[in-house]
Specification:
This protein has 189 residues and is mainly alpha-helical. The chain has 5 helices and 3 strands. A 3-stranded mixed sheet has the order 1-3-2.
Amino acid sequence: MPEANLAAEYIPSDADRICSVFESCFWASNRTRLVGGGEEPLYRPADAEIDYHQIVFRSDYAASALHEAAHWCIAGEQRRLLVDYGYWYEPDGRGVEQQRIFESVEAKPQALEWLFSVAAGRQFRVSVDNLDGDEIDPFPFRLAVWQNVRRYLAFGLPPRAAQFCQALGTHFGSMPCTDFEYYEFKFIN
């Protein structure tokens, strides 16, 4: 019986496949790449060193790739010219007030991340991103994410988000990302 040569065939990870889908959607029109391997997420606009925009996500985590792509899909043209879209980031260890501010700006990107996750056939988990901070009730944030998903489904996704969501669904052969039945509140965790 011949031995299989497992090293000969490269099998791309979900993160690699997500990057490939993103590039097929946005490289020609926006000169933007989704790049894994970061210690921390970072949006880096083109500069003298690198002549294209980079959305850097954590390690090779597919969920991080989808989340960072969501931020990019929401950011306006002027924001996409600024490092990290010109926003602040308060690191892990936030107090209650800082966490609520963080959650107020994270609900829309996490709603898009949920839509992208469904399109890519992946499970979605809400991230409060504050493991060392004050403990707070996650229900209001989960509700805000769910409400934003429902709003996107009812009124439409931002154009880049709609394009990416559709391309993910086609690539991964998953269900339509805009079907209400996949976004019941009981599914959010």
